[in-house]
Amino acid sequence: MKLLTVSALLCGLFALTAAVEELEDVVKRTSPPFCTESSKLQQRVFIFVDKKLTWAEAESNCVSMGGHLASVHSLATHNLVRRLIKRRANRNSNAWIGGSDQSWESVWQWTDGTCFHYNKWLTGQPNNSGNQDCLQISLNGWEDRRCSCRQPSVCALVLFYPLVR
Ligand SMILES: [Ca+2]
Ligand SMILES: [Ca+2]
């Protein structure tokens, strides 16, 4: 019921971009200095964008909706995003999510500022082949890919911040 209500609300807001998706109870505790820890206190909604964009264009598109490319902090979230892609794309499409090592090679960061603790790299990845700095979520895991490639993407919008006393 909650999902339907939220979906209806967000569909109204973001009908141009994509269908609104799954809710996830996630994460956020402030933890200086470089990244923010996740917690179960935050709700996010994931949106599949079936337009072929570069990684930077995809992030800008997410920001224009008030979010970022999705960060993924658990196998459960990875699986949730994969289910979303399968359902919305009607195929097992690859997609951009919010990780990159553009700032420092081999130091992966999420565009939403959360800490990059969890990963689901496929065997042999990331390999930086031909200078690959952006994170693609593939069917069974993650790969680094050239940021200029164009493909669908997954945004995440924070719906709820708990009150901090
Ligand atoms: Ca790289
Ligand atoms: Ca690669």
From TrEMBL:
Can you name this protein?
Answer: Type-2 ice-structuring protein-like isoform X1
Q: Which Pfam families match?
A: Lectin_C
> For the C-type lectin domain, which residue ranges apply?
41-156
Entries under InterPro entries matching the protein:
C-type_lectin-like, C-type_lectin-like/link_sf, C-type_lectin/snaclec_domain, C-type_lectin_CS, CTDL_fold
Question: Which organism is this entry from?
Answer: Xyrichtys novacula
**Keywords for the protein's UniProt record, in alphabetical order:** Disulfide bond, Signal
Q: Which residues form the signal peptide?
A: 1-19
State the CDD domains in the record. CLECT
Answer whether the UniProt record assigns the keyword Signal to this protein. Answer: yes
Give the residue spans that cross the bilayer: none
